[in-house]
């Protein structure tokens, strides 16, 4: 008997049919092809176009509502947005994924094949850029008026491949054949200036004025990427600026007969947004990078001011009420003197009023304590590129030192030297962190411990000056992408056990804890993990030709390659296991596959040596019959958002092993725990808060604490002692110097050993080795107890609801932004 169709199912049927017709329509009218001969590319583009009909409706409604209600809005300034693919994310957030899947199936198309047509939008390096992407998803989902501002890089993060185990970089051309999700907005073009000189002039009243005569004018062309909130809430925008030569400038050169010169000027202007700097947490200090920073900050501020003036004219009094700007690290800190310049030089506001306004608008997030990542620009570079801004920075600094520092610490020159925005020396430098703190009304770190260290170690005097300025907002990740879309099997189980509200109320997952001991739920949960692992095993075979046992423990370390993240600690432990197996053919261990994903900055030598070593050692171990499949090592090439979405649902063990005090927060740790992986981790960054949430039975903590790290450094750390006192450490380090892993070429892997011994082991790899190996033993013994492990995995998923980026955004709203949601 035929079941009566529910109204909901009927509506779904209608959308499916509608989608189908729309896809065909776009195949014809947008792609100029038809169902019989369309390529997967064409099908994908036609489907995007069909989906965009709804996206653009939502966008128009949202923008109209925000305009009519004249809402206060957040402006997120970030050099990086690591968006990944938008296809399935947009479908999920619009609630259309199942319908689209069905519609395409009826047309004989597998949706997964279409997903693979899309290039990742990789306009970022790592955690900082991905955080920005999660935040704009949450802002739209929670109906907060917000715009993300950044750069429309022509080339995102390089693509990685391996040649004889060494990293090769190739350019990323994500929009070579156009990107269906972006809209160019020529009506909102901005022009900005760089170079030139500053003239001092006096007006009719005899008042001094500074006039900047720019050396070059550059056009910023905005591209808007709609950001679709979950459940058809708001559709916000990510506005990315592309640089072009200004028409005015071209015309000028052209008229003077310099046709070739004009072409060259074009190329120079276009260079600004050409490529993302691939350095993660290192200050490159290059002129072009400073110009990138200024270019997008200036375009964005002018865009904000244009919108404000449309509603409020020349009355600046409501500006701080309407506008809040979040600086994603110090990369956009030049926005502070730029707003001062606009107010003082262009709007003729007096300094005190302008500064008061500025200090109500900016807030700054610090993402690292690593000294090499704290941005400093040579004063002489600033003088050349932004001659007016350096004057403004000097004036901000003069007043800060006279009116704040000298008042609290009268006559204390050491304090002034330490707090000055200008660092004195042979090459005077602008300290962008200092500038950011002085110019902002709030400063936050990204996990509890990190925020404490920002206050105690990085800016203690600033805290003394402004105790209320400093706060914490622990990072989070969007559960829409990092659970619902990437792990559909687990999502379905969660829908059944805790209801369907969890994607927007992640704390609901805690209901799953009630089932942690339920054998049936344990079986379902682990069966899902097993299926995800089988899928990943196939992917690994496809990408690396390596066969792995899908029932082994999948132990995953995915993140940028950095000494402080200690991929080499993981590697030394792998070598120790391998050695134990060779020394004892019956060595008893649960089979384990160690999986890495990591890009190294192209100029970071040791990081690249570590990649090479992992690949060489993997090669040896994977082909050694004596290992009998107890151990496999896989380095997945070209780690990126799309690969993370395949790895994370299949992880049993999550490696979060940074030296305590070095990882500001981490966010991969959250994604892996959310998908039921058990963390092996140090008490660093957000690991500490994850441990608090899941409890000590469900996480393997090891290693020195922040205080112990400090004490060890203070008392004098000698890595040699660990080398001489621990035979296993000595053996594996010496092994690296032989030609065992690189036949005929001894010493090819010795860079790691040298950095740990002669190099002094700055990240305490050897000091933490023994404790790490013990934690790994614990994981091994835990895994042998099937029910016990299932319980731990379930509790990880159940108890990490805190780490949704929705919670982070609500924290920012209440502690920093003071926004009101605006229902569309
Ligand atoms: N982070 Br600064 C980056 O990914 N890139 C950077 O340039 C800087 C920081 C990361 C932190 O290392 C990581 O701990 C944190 O979770 C992430 O930012 C987001 O806050």
Task: Provide tags for this entry.
alpha/beta; 10-stranded mixed beta sheet; 6-stranded parallel beta sheet; 33 helices; binds 5-bromo-1-(beta-D-glucopyranosyl)pyrimidine-2,4(1H,3H)-dione
Task: List the SSEs and their pairings.
Blueprint: H1 7-29, H2 40-69, E1 73-77, E2 81-84, H3 87-93, H4 97-106, H5 111-115, E3 121-123, H6 127-141, E4 146-151, E5 159-163, E6 166-170, E7 183-184, E8 190-194, E9 197-202, E10 208-213, E11 216-228, E12 235-245, H7 247-255, H8 259-271, H9 287-312, H10 319-322, E13 323-328, H11 335-346, H12 351-361, E14 362-365, E15 376-378, H13 379-385, H14 387-408, H15 413-419, E16 422-423, E17 429-431, H16 432-439, E18 442-445, H17 448-458, H18 460-465, E19 470-472, H19 479-485, H20 488-498, H21 519-544, E20 553-558, H22 567-583, E21 592-597, H23 605-622, E22 631-636, H24 641-647, E23 653-656, H25 668-674, E24 678-681, H26 687-694, E25 700-701, H27 706-715, H28 719-725, H29 727-735, H30 750-756, H31 765-784, H32 786-799, H33 805-817
Parallel strand pairs: 1-4, 1-13, 4-12, 13-14, 14-18, 18-19, 20-21, 20-23, 21-22, 23-24, 24-25
Antiparallel strand pairs: 2-3, 5-6, 7-11, 8-11, 9-10, 11-12, 15-17, 16-17
Bound molecules: 5-bromo-1-(beta-D-glucopyranosyl)pyrimidine-2,4(1H,3H)-dione (GPU).
EC number: 2.4.1.1
Modified residues (N6-(pyridoxal phosphate)lysine): 671
GO cellular component, one term: cytoplasm
């Amino acid at each position: 008997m035929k079941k009566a169709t529910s109204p909901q199912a009927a509506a779904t049927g209608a959308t499916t049919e509608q989608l189908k017709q729309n896809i065909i329509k776009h195949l014809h009218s947008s792609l100029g092809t038809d169902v019989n001969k369309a390529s997967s590319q064409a099908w994908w583009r036609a489907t995007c176009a069909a989906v965009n009909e709804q996206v653009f409706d939502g966008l128009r409604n949202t923008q109209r509502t925000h305009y009519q209600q004249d809402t206060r809005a957040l402006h997120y300034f970030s050099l990086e947005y690591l968006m990944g693919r938008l296809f399935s994310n947009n479908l999920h957030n619009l609630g259309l994924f199942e319908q689209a899947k069905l519609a395409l199936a009826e047309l004989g198309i597998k949706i997964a094949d279409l997903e693979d047509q899309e290039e990742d939008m990789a306009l970022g390096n790592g955690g900082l850029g991905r955080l920005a992407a999660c935040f704009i998803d949450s802002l739209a989902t929670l109906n907060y008026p917000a715009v993300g501002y950044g750069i429309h890089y022509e080339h995102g993060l390089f693509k990685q491949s391996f040649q004889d185990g060494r990293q090769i970089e190739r350019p990323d051309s994500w929009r070579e054949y156009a990107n269906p999700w972006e809209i160019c907005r020529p009506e909102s073009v901005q022009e900005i200036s760089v170079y030139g000189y500053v003239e001092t002039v006096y007006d009719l009243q005899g008042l001094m004025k500074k006039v900047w005569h720019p050396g070059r004018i550059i056009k910023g062309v905005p591209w808007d990427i709609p950001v679709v909130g979950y459940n058809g809430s708001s559709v916000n925008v990510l506005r990315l600026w592309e640089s072009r030569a200004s028409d005015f400038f071209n015309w000028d050169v052209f008229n003077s007969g310099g046709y070739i010169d004009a072409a060259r000027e074009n190329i120079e202007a276009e260079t600004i947004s050409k490529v993302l700097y691939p350095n993660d947490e290192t200050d490159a200090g290059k002129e072009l990078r400073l110009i990138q920073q200024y270019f997008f900050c200036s375009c964005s501020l002018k865009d904000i001011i244009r919108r404000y003036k449309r509603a409020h004219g020349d009355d600046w009094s409501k500006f701080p009420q309407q506008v809040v700007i979040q600086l994603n690290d110090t990369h956009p800190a030049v926005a502070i003197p730029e707003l001062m310049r606009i107010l003082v030089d262009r709007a003729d506001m007096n300094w005190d009023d302008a500064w008061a306004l500025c200090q109500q608008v900016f807030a700054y997030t610090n993402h690292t304590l690593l000294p090499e990542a704290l941005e400093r620009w040579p004063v002489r570079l600033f003088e050349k590129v932004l001659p007016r801004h350096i004057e403004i920075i000097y004036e901000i600094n003069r007043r800060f030192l006279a009116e704040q520092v000298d008042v609290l610490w009268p006559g204390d020159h050491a304090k002034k030297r330490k707090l000055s925005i200008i660092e004195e020396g042979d090459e005077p430098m602008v300290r962008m962190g200092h500038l950011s703190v002085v110019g902002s009304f709030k400063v936050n770190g990204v996990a509890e411990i990190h925020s404490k260290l920002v206050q105690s170690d990085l800016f203690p005097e600033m805290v003394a000056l402004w105790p209320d300025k400093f706060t914490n907002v622990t990072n989070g990740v969007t559960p829409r992408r990092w659970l619902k879309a990437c792990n559909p099997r687990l999502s379905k189980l969660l829908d059944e056990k805790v209801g369907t509200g969890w994607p927007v109320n992640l704390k609901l997952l805690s209901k799953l804890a009630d089932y942690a001991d339920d054998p049936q739920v344990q079986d379902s949960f682990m069966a899902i993990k097993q299926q995800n692992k089988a899928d990943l095993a196939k992917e690994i075979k496809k990408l690396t030709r390596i066969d792995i046992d899908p029932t082994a423990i999948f132990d995953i370390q995915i993140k940028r390659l950095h000494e402080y993240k200690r991929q080499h600690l993981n590697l030394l432990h792998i070598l120790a296991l391998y050695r134990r197996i060779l020394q004892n053919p019956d060595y008893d261990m649960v089979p384990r596959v160690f999986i890495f994903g990591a890009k190294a900055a192209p100029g970071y030598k040791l990081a690249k040596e570590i990649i090479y070593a992992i690949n060489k050692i993997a090669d040896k171990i994977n082909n050694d019959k004596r290992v009998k499949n107890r151990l496999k090592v896989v380095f997945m090439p070209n780690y990126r958002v799309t690969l993370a979405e395949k790895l994370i649902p299949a992880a049993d063990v999550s490696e979060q092993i940074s030296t305590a005090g070095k990882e500001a927060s981490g966010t991969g740790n959250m994604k892996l725990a959310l998908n039921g992986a058990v963390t092996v981790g140090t008490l660093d960054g957000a690991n500490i808060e994850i441990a608090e949430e899941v409890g000590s039975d469900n996480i393997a903590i090891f290693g020195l604490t922040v205080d112990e790290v400090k004490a060890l450094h203070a008392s004098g750390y000698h890595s040699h002692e660990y080398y001489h006192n621990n035979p296993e450490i000595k053996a594996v380090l010496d092994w690296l110097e032989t030609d065992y892993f690189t036949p005929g070429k001894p010493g090819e892997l010795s860079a790691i050993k040298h950095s740990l011994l002669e190099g002094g082991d700055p990240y305490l790899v050897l000091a933490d080795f023994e404790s790490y190996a013990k934690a790994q033993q614990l994981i091994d013994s835990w895994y042998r107890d099937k029910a016990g492990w299932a319980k731990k995995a379930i509790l990880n998923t159940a108890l990490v609801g805190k780490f949704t980026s929705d919670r982070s955004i609500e924290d920012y709203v209440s502690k920093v932004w003071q926004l009101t949601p605006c229902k569309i």
